[in-house]
Amino acid sequence: MDAESLLLSLELASGSGQGLSPDRRASLLTSLLLVKRDYRYSRVLFWGRILGLVTDYYIAQGLIEDQLAPRKTLYSLNCMEWSLLPPATEEMVEQTSVVKGRFMGDPSHEYEHVDLQKVNDGDKVFEEEIVVRIKEETRLVSIIDQIDKAVAVIPRGALFKTPFGPVHVNRTFEGLSMSEAKKLSSYFHFREPVELKNKTLLEKADLDPSLDFMDSLENDIPKGNSLLLRGHWICPQAKAVGHAPTIFLCKWNQGPGWEMVVWCESLRVGLPQGPIQVSAHSKQSVNVYRQKEGLSSMCFWRQEVSQCLF
Amino acid sequence: MGDPQQDPELSYQQSARQRSSQDQGRSREQSLSQATVPQETQQLPLDAQVLSGITETPESQAPLQGWAQGAGLSQYDNSAVSQGGVQYLSMSAGFPADFQRQTYVDEGRVQATHNADFMLQQLQRGQGNLLQQLESSFQDPRPNYLGQFNAYQREDSQFGQGTQHGPYTRDDPALQFSSSELSFMPFDMEVSEPEPRELAVQNAKAYLQQTSVSCDLSLYEHLVNVLTKILNQRPQDPLSILESLNRTAQMEWFHPKLDTLRDDPEMQPTYEMAEKQKALFVRGGSGEGEQEVEEEPLETAVPNVMESAFYFEQAGVGLSSDESFRIFLALKQLVDQQPIHTCRFWGKILGLSRSYLVAEVEFREGEEDVEEEEVVEELTEGDVLDMHGEEEGEEDEEKVSDFLPKRTWKPPPVIPKEESRLGANKYLYFVCNEPGRPWTKLPHVTPSQIVQARKIKKFFTGHLDAPVISYPPFPGNEANYLRAQIARISAATHISPLGFYQFGEEEGDEEEEGGAGRDSFEENPDFEGIAVLELVDSMANWVHHTQHILPQGRCTWVNPLQKKEEEEELGEEEEKADEGMEEVEQEIGPPLLTPLSEDAEIMHMSPWTSRLSCSLCPQYSVAIVRSNLWPGAYTYATGKKFENIYIGWGHKYSPENFNPPLPAPIQQEYPSGPEIMEMSDPTVEEEQALKAAQEQALVAAEEEEEDEEEDEDEDQDD
């Protein structure tokens, strides 16, 4: 929410039970103003709060004139002193995906993760335990990035793209009409478009280049209210063996940590028979468990899933 | 356009026309008299009408408006018609402005088609006049003069006609021609060859009427729209707002308001909601209510929602104050409708399409909730299956040869649900989606529902009758699931400062058999309150005041193998089957009023987080406890006050992401052994070898027999 209209936005969002105490609100109004001045942002957004066991993180983001340009993220523990976070990298996201559980509220806290690595020592192959230390600050960066990419959403028309490229706030935007507000297609992911490039020319024909320059929510997976889906899906494991199993998506629930159960029927003998369970851990990775081998897991990215699904 | 604007417009346009006709040259004054005379005669009565307040659209304005709507050739001609013979004036007089305008346009169109030939010939004249009209009116600096100045304007225009002559000749190519030609044109009905002037006009018009590929609107039409708009609305300073006029005119063209007679019906659900909530704000019983209040402020069961909302706001949770107030009114409504002894705002459970507001109530003594006695539909799956089996059995009697095997599986015994006012069913819960909507009572929870609810994770939809599709299957619909989650959340997160509640005297010992300890408590009158800092520092200063729910799904343990008398009368088979089961171990949970410090850790993580509401001024802040196990559950305490609230999705926190249990392993159909294994067919060689071997064996046997016989013979011989 925009720092300038923070109070109004908080009021509108209060139905979820999440709010800010009066002292937090007051200090945010003061300190975000200073942040805007000191960092020379054109716009400061109050991003939200990440609950920690000991203390909570308050997150703000600074935007420059181009609204889609990479954003600077700041965090604060007391709503007064803000520290800049480094930009998220692929590596960070991968590294921190192993960390589970609650945030502590201490950016210097280190999570320990024991990783098993196979080491070739001459002819012998043995597994070595490697302790990976992950700083909570790194995890914070990657979580914010993931949340931004997955659920940062703006209504259609709130931003417009100028002919020269930069994206600006549309001052004439007056909100969506009732019928439009109910449609998923009138909301966009507030990030660099990813799936727009994959659209066919026919699909792009109706788009207004100055408004429809981001990914619409319409095509997100899983679909809003579909409970049952079927599709063919080539998982890397099967590819290695040399044929495609048919996979029936039997169930999924939507929301954080969406999950689905998948039964796999191999077409030929040779693949281990029996149910294979696929559960989508977070929105990022998908783990495939084969029941026969216990929990031998395999990880691949959601990108592949969405491409393979239909 | 507004009526008041018509006055200056009328007068002005008339004067403008007059002027324009005069501009065309004095030389043709006489020849033009045919056209101008009707106007002159018409002016005076029209002015009089307008001045006397009758809303009447002047004849000169009507064609302009018709033009704005279509901007086509027909209107164009139309104006020419109106210019030449003023036959419409008489028809349109006396109509209200709106109607008149429309009829006029229609008639104009009709007329245009009828008189097409005539029009074509008159086009030039009309166009010339009209262009002049438009330009003269646009450049005239006196659009705002009021109607009173009519006379003055007329004089003025006549007076200053010489000076106004300039622009036309300079800008308009059409007017580069001499005025004598112009004056000649209208009366030259039989023009056969295209005049150069006509050609020039047509070329210019054609150029302006070009439309681009991306847009249907031509510059010509657009200019017409803009000018019409300016002329209709008479803005103060048209030049300065030309830019925006330009844009709005274009926008309006693309978003036509289709029907101006009726407003679009707006059936917004928000209006409906506001209408429903209006009832909350009306005081019941009008006059009576006031008197009551004056007499004695009755003690009411309605909780002070606003107060706790204030404290929760200090903690940074809770709903906005106006929503809290609406909830407060809704609870008041609930208390008025039901025989309620105590009432509490339990919290809010968010759903996908709607949310639930939950009220926790206790009925007055004796007002036992008349349960809809869902007549023991505890025809469990097993029974159903058994019945099914019997039916099949009957069918099979006809063909006895292949009967189905009887199933040996018995459903586990059903654990009876707890009585109301006991255990998980201690309170009744009412839910509604929005303050103002009717409250619905949730059914009591059964142990099996709690057990199954622990295994699944579903989002609420906001519709109580929605089915809960899950694996393993959940017995009931969303209302049951909601009730089960409420029971689980209450049991886990309802806490109070140590000492606020105490056990009632003596009763406890009798009921101790259940193993769950005493299950009733009362408020401690001597409770002094615990300092806020102590509450924050030590979780030992907080206790659970809701009973723990055992793995069985009940708060007090019941031996599922103990049978009620009725059940014992049932067939012996069941008993036999039960004997086979091993003794069930009694489940024991922590007793009531256990300190939070003894709660189990989840993944090396404390299940509770306690805070001061404001670190800057600890003296005046309140103690906040947040549950880490049920995100969304909060408690505040200050002095003798405390309150629990839950606002969330109704999901328990799990460090690992939720994985539904795998389907049960596939059952073996029959024991696999050598007798059902398929053998590979023997080859010819093998068969022959076997044959040979058999023959050999036969021969050998014969020989042996012979030998034996011989032996016997020998024996006999012996």
From TrEMBL, chain A:
Any one Gene Ontology BP term: axoneme assembly
Alphabetical list of InterPro entries matching this protein: RSP9
Any one of the GO CC terms: axoneme
Subcellular location field: Cell projection, Kinocilium; Cytoplasm, Cytoskeleton, Flagellum axoneme
Lineage top rank: taxon: Eukaryota
Keywords, comma-separated and alphabetical: Cell projection, Cilium, Cilium biogenesis/degradation, Cytoplasm, Cytoskeleton, Flagellum
Predominant subcellular localization, coarse grouping: other
Keyword match Nucleotide-binding: no
Family the UniProt entry places it in: Belongs to the flagellar radial spoke RSP9 family.
Name of the molecule in the record: Radial spoke head protein 9 homolog
Organism: Phyllostomus discolor
Lineage, highest ranks first: Eukaryota, Metazoa, Chordata, Craniata, Vertebrata
TrEMBL record, chain B:
Region (Disordered): 1-46, 564-584, 671-718
Keywords: Cell projection, Cilium, Cytoplasm, Cytoskeleton
Localization: Cytoplasm, Cytoskeleton, Cilium axoneme
InterPro entries: Radial_spoke
Top-rank taxon: Eukaryota
Polar residues bias (residue ranges): 32-44
Main subcellular localisation: cytoplasm
Feature: compositional bias, Acidic residues: 566-584, 701-718
Biological process per Gene Ontology, one example term: axoneme assembly
Pfam families reported for this sequence: Radial_spoke
Record's compositionally biased regions (Low complexity): 11-24, 690-700
Coiled-coil residues: none
CC annotations in GO: radial spoke
Name the record gives this protein: Radial spoke head 6-like protein A
Biological source species: Phyllostomus discolor (pale spear-nosed bat)
